[in-house]
Amino acid sequence: MSVGGSIIIPPSGFDVEFLKQFKQLILDHVARGRYFVLIVGGGATCRQYQQALSTVAAVSQIDLDWLGIQTTIFNAHFVRLMFGDQAYGEVVIKPQPPVTTNKPIIVAAGWQPGCSTDKDAVLHAEAHDAGELFNLSNIDYVYDKDPQAHPDAKRVEKTDWATFRREIVGEDWVPGKNTPFDPMASQLAERLKLKVGILRGTNLEAVRLALSGQPFPGTVVE
After folding, report:
1. How many CA atoms lie within 13 A of 149 on its CB side?
2. 148-175 burial: b if 16+ Cβ within 10 Å, else e
3. Which of 47, 117, 152, 168 has its CA 20 to 30 A from that of 71?
4. Domain residue ranges of the chain, discontinuous segments joined by +
5. How far apart are CA 137 and CA 109, in angstroms?
6. Hey, is 142 helix, strand or coil?
7. What is the C-alpha separation between 108 and 110, in angstroms, rounded?
8. What is the pLDDT of residues 116-156, one digit of tens each?
9. In this structure, what DSSP letter does residue 220 have?
10. In CATH, what is the architecture of 2-221?
C-alpha cells in the first residue's frame, strides 16, 4: 500500500481522529490474519522543502530527490511508531530483498533518486509477490486531464497501463511532481502486470471496500 504523505499530514496539519480510524482499520485486518507493507510518501511536506530549496539555491534534481526521500523517512517513522509493537522495528529503506519478520506491519520509505515512493511501493509488491497494490492519494478518481483547470475533465474508473502512461502521467520524472501515479512506477507496474487501485486515502469506507476485495470508488489500472 502506497500511502501518500498528505494522507498522513495534510497541508492543514494532522487530523488525529482520522489517524486513529485509519490505524484501527489496518489493525482490524491484521486481526484477520493479514499483513501490510505501508510505503509512506513525503506529500506536501516534501514539496514545501523542495520548493523552498529551489528558490534559495541552485540545486540538482538529484539533490531535490534526496531531500524528498528524507521527508518520506521522517513521515514513515511517525507511521511506524503509530502502530507500536505491531510494526517491524525499523523503517525499511531498500525494497529488496524483502524483510523477514513476524510483525504484521512493515513501514517503508523512499529509497533512491529518480522516482517517488510509488515506484518503491511497486518494488515492495514485487518482492512480496503481491499482484495488487493500493495507492492512497488525495483524489477520488484519476481524470483524463486536470479537473481544476478543465471543467470538462472526465473521470477514469478503469484503464490499462499503456493508456494511463500515454494520456495521463507521461514518461518523465520530475522531483515533487504531483501525478496520480509516478511515471517510473507506472512503467515498472506495467512490466510486472501489477494491478493498482488509486483512491482517496481519507475516504476510509473506500479503503475498507478495497481491502475487502469489493468494488470501491476509485480508479483501477491493470
Report:
1. 4
2. eeeeeeeebeebebeebbeebbeeebeb
3. 168
4. 2-221
5. 16
6. strand
7. 7
8. 899 999 999 999 999 999 999 989 999 988 888 888 999 99
9. E
10. 3-Layer(aba) Sandwich (3.40)
φ, ψ at 183 (rounded to 5°)? -55, -40
Residue carrying the nine cell digits 492543514? 12
CA 221, CA 40: separation in Å to the nearest integer?
20
Cell of 13: 496539519
* C-alpha to C-alpha distance for 208 and 182, rounded to whole angstroms: 24
Q: Which amino acid makes up residue 194? A: L
* 33, 68, 183, 218 from 177: Cα distances, Å: 36, 11, 10, 21
CB atoms within 10 A of CB 102: 6
- What radius of gyration do the chain's Cα atoms show? 17
Q: Per the confidence metrics, is the pTM higher than 0.90?
A: yes
**Residue-level length of the chain:** 222
The CA distance from 206 to 185, in Å, is 23
Q: What residue type is 59 in one-letter code?
A: V
